[in-house]
Amino acid sequence: MTQRLAGKTALITGAAQGLGAGIALALAREGARVVATDRNEAGALATAAGIDAELGADTACAIRHDVTSEDDWQAALAFAADRLGGLSVLVNNAGIVTMGSVEDLDLAAWRQAMAVNADSAFIGSKYALPLLRESQPASIVNMSSISALVAGANLAAYNASKAALWMLTKSVALHCAKQGWNVRCNSVHPTFVRTPLLDGIVGSHEDEAKMAKLARQVPIGRIGEVADVAAAVVYLASDESAMMTGSELKLDGGMSAM
Ligand SMILES: NC(=O)c1ccc[n+]([C@@H]2O[C@H](COP(=O)([O-])OP(=O)(O)OC[C@H]3O[C@@H](n4cnc5c(N)ncnc54)[C@H](O)[C@@H]3O)[C@@H](O)[C@H]2O)c1
Question: Less Cβ crowding at N or C end of the chain, within 10 Å?
Fold first, then answer.
């Protein structure tokens, strides 16, 4: 690896599995020191242990963190500041898929989707900014979805929550620019990516027939892999993307071009 993130310190939410775990590893492989957080504490600890096993002790650490909790955010950020000596990258990755049309969903399910997918990044950005501006140049990467831009009849809460995250990204970016801080904020918008999240949509992300069926909806002819998304986050976390803020990076295999 080329140490594109040497000297960077990163906190990744939802890092017990799937994209968050892959992003934490990819950032660390490029030289960042990372905190893996998740409401699944054992999973976050396993992610950090795997990174340390590959890259050396003290590359990664972990803490239990429910992203809908203000108290947990403050504790996780204090932990990152203490263990990493500051924070220059925040990846708001934790998210849930809530299936259902506007008529199927009850208000509690809607609110839960908004809390995990959108409120989380509001709280996280709010409390992380004092740390990030002490470690400029800094970067916030928000894991939205192509579902922020392209709707589905049975994805009312997911569509709306990911679109809220997309637009929050732009507001945070403009706020930081207005303050004169070199703290950038961008969003990432993948199509289907092979992670356990797809289990809730199609049954099993390890079922190749089901993955092939999903792939037929993607112009490029395949679904995304964790490495596709992790590479984009490395770029946005790095100073290579210095001119990019308030932007959306679509990793949709051409889906939204149709
Ligand atoms: N996999 C896809 O097809 C896909 C496509 C587009 C966007 N995304 C987005 O990427 C992100 C990661 O998804 P994934 O595919 O890795 O999903 P995943 O279900 O495999 O992993 C999500 C992780 O988030 C954690 N999490 C959930 N709620 C939490 C909470 N309240 N507090 C802390 N942690 C919580 C879970 O414990 C889990 O470890 C999500 O925001 C998702 O919406 C995924």
Answer: C
Residue nearest to atom 38 of ligand 1 (CA): 14
User: 0.90 exceeded by the pTM?
Assistant: yes
Distance 143 CA to ligand 1 centre (A): 9
Over its C-alpha atoms, the chain yields an Rg (Å, rounded) of: 17
| C-alpha 95 – ligand 1 centre gap (Å) | 4
- Report how far residue 78's alpha carbon sits from residue 68's, in angstroms, rounded to the nearest whole number: 17
Task: Say how many C-beta atoms besides its own lie within 10 A of residue 2's C-beta.
Answer: 8
CB 66 within 8 A of CB 53: no
Residue 229 lies in a domain: no
Residue 127 annotated among the catalytic residues of the structure: no
Does residue 220 sit within a domain? no
Reported as a single tens digit per residue, the pLDDT across 192-205 is 999 999 998 888 88
Give me the sign of the Cα torsion angle 148, 150, 151, 152.
Answer: negative
